[in-house]
Design a protein that fits this description.
Structural class: mainly alpha
Strand content: under 5%
Largest sheet: none
Radius of gyration: 15 Å
Order of helices and strands: HHHHH
Distance between the termini: 14 Å
Number of strands: 0
Helix content: 55-70%
Shape: globular
């Protein structure tokens, strides 16, 4: 029998690895940075509505992804913090799974624009970046996240969280 700690660690590790791989794929396609960011990996934030192991998994996955992408220290720190806050908010909404995408959309829309403007010196206004980052998050967390929720709901009785 697998202990709860081992299962938690395994789930967190798998989610972190998936986050890194999906972010790398988005990077290869030119979608994971700049003003409009469509990180397929952000769809995984909805998994925090199913297992608390997703919280550290998402944070570590985002942290590693930002390091591997060559992000500046403020991006590594605050981008990962945005994902962590989004995951915590999603976990708080675990009884309302279809609302799960909202916390990561909000957290990233409020935090990442400041990273783009002040850490990277991207030309533009914070409000503009909020619109573009928010749009990317709606695609990543909203649309892809809801698709993931639908798939997980169909398989939930087969998954041993």
């Amino acid at each position: 029998m697998i202990s709860k700690k081992t299962r938690f660690l395994a789930h967190a590790s798998i989610i972190a690895a998936l986050y890194v791989v999906l972010t790398y794929l988005a990077t290869l396609l030119g979608l994971s940075s700049n003003a409009v960011q469509i990180r397929f990996s952000e769809a995984l934030t909805v998994l925090a509505a199913y297992t608390p192991a997703a919280i550290p998994g998402l944070f570590i996955g985002c942290f590693l992804s930002n390091i591997f992408a060559g992000g500046v220290v403020w991006d590594i720190l605050f981008g990962s913090l945005a994902t962590l806050l989004g995951a915590l908010g999603t976990y708080a909404l675990k009884k309302h799974k279809y609302l799960a995408p909202l916390p990561p959309i909000i957290a990233n829309t409020l935090i990442v624009p400041f990273v783009l403007r002040y850490a990277y010196g991207a030309p533009g206004r914070i409000g503009y970046f909020m619109l573009t980052v928010g749009a990317g998050e709606v695609i990543s967390c909203g649309i892809l996240g809801i698709l993931l929720i639908t798939a997980v709901n169909k398989l939930e009785n087969r998954i041993n969280w």
